[in-house]
Amino acid sequence: MSTVAIPYDIEPHPITGMYNGKFGLWLFLASEVMLFGALFSTYILLRVGAPAGTWPHHGSEILDVPKGTINTLVLIASSVSMVLAWASLKMNNFAKGRVFLLVTFLLAGVFLVIKATEYYAKFTHYQIDVKTPVLLHGEKVTRITGHLHEQTDEHVVITPDAVKGQEHPAEMEIERDNIVRLTNFGPQHSTYMATYFTLTGLHGLHIVGGMVVILFLLLTGPSMWSKNPAKLTNRVECTGLYWHFVDLVWIFLFPVFYLL
Amino acid sequence: MASSSHEMDKHLKVYYIVFGCLAVLTVLTVSVAYLHLPIVAAVAVALLIACVKGSLVASFFMHLISERRLIFVILGLCLFLFLMLLLVPSLTFFEPHYSTFVNGVSGR
Amino acid sequence: MSHDHGHDLPFWRKYIFSVDHKVIGIQYAVTALLFLFLGFSLISIMRYQLAYPGRDIPVIGKLLGEPIVGKTPTGYVLTGDGYNAFGAMHGTIMIFLGVVPLAVGGFGNFVLPLQIGAPDMAFPRLNMASYWAYFSGGVVMLTSFFVPGGAANSGWTSYPPLSDIATTGQTMWLFGMVLLITSSLLGSVNFIVTTVQMRAKGLSFFRLPFFVWAQLVTSFLLLLAFPPLEAAGVLQLMDRLAGTSFFLPSGLVVSGQVQNQLSGGGSPLLWQHLFWFLAHPEVYVLILPALGIVAEVIANNTRKPLWGYKSLVYSTIFLGFMSFLVWAHHMFMTGMGQTLSTFFQATTMIISVPSVIILTCLVISLWGASIRFTVPMLFALAFLPMFAIGGLTGLPLGLTTSDIQLHDTYYVIGHFHYVVAPGTLFALFAGVYYWFPKATGRKMNDFLGKLHFWPSFIFINGVFMPMFFIGMAGVLRRQFDQTEQLHGAAVQGLTVMVSWSAWMLIISQFPFIINFFWSIFRGEKVEANPWQATTLEWSAPSPPPHGNFATPPVVACGPYEYSIPGKEKDFCPQNVALEA
Question: What is the mean pLDDT of residues C302-320?
Answer without folding.
Answer: 97
